[in-house]
Amino acid sequence: MSVDIVWCSTSGGADSKASTSANWIGGIAPGSNGHVAVFNAGTMPCIWDITNAISSMLINSSYNAQITQTANLTLSGYFIFDSTG
C-alpha cells in the first residue's frame, strides 16, 4: 500500500482534528481517494472528523494515542492495523 498522507503524531499540530491540514505532514488533510497512515510513537490524538471517503488507512501499533471517530470512516480499499512495525 502506498501512503501519501501521514498524521503528525509526534509533533503538535493545530488541534487534534483530522480535517485540519496543519495536523498532517506536508500540510494537506486527506481528500477523496487518499492513502492515509497513522504511525510513529506519538502522543497527539486524532479526532477523525472527515466525511469524504478515502482509499485506505494504515495504523501502526507504535502509535500510542487515541483515535476518536466523530464521522463515519468510509474506505474504498484497505484498513490495515500493522503490529510488525
Features:
85 residues; two-stranded parallel sheet; mainly beta; single chain; 25% strand; 4-stranded parallel β-sheet
What does this structure look like?
It is a single chain. The protein is mostly beta strands. It has one domain (1-85). Helices cover 0% and strands 25% of the residues. The protein has no helices and 6 strands. A 4-stranded parallel sheet has the order 1-2-4-6, with no helix packed on it. It has a two-stranded parallel sheet with strand order 3-5. The protein is globular and about 30 Å long. The model has no long low-confidence stretch (mean pLDDT 83).
Whole-number total of structural domains: 1
Helix content: under 10%
Q: What is the ordering of alpha helices and beta strands?
A: EEEEEE
Oligomer: single chain
Specify the overall morphology. globular
Main β-sheet: number of strands, strand sense, barrel status?
4 strands, parallel
Strand coverage percent: 15-25%
Count of extended strands:
6
Number of helices: 0
Amino-to-carboxy terminus distance: 15 Å
Rounded Rg: 11 Å
Low-confidence stretches: none
User: Structural class, please?
Assistant: mainly beta
Spatial order of strands in the largest sheet? 1-2-4-6
Mean pLDDT: 83
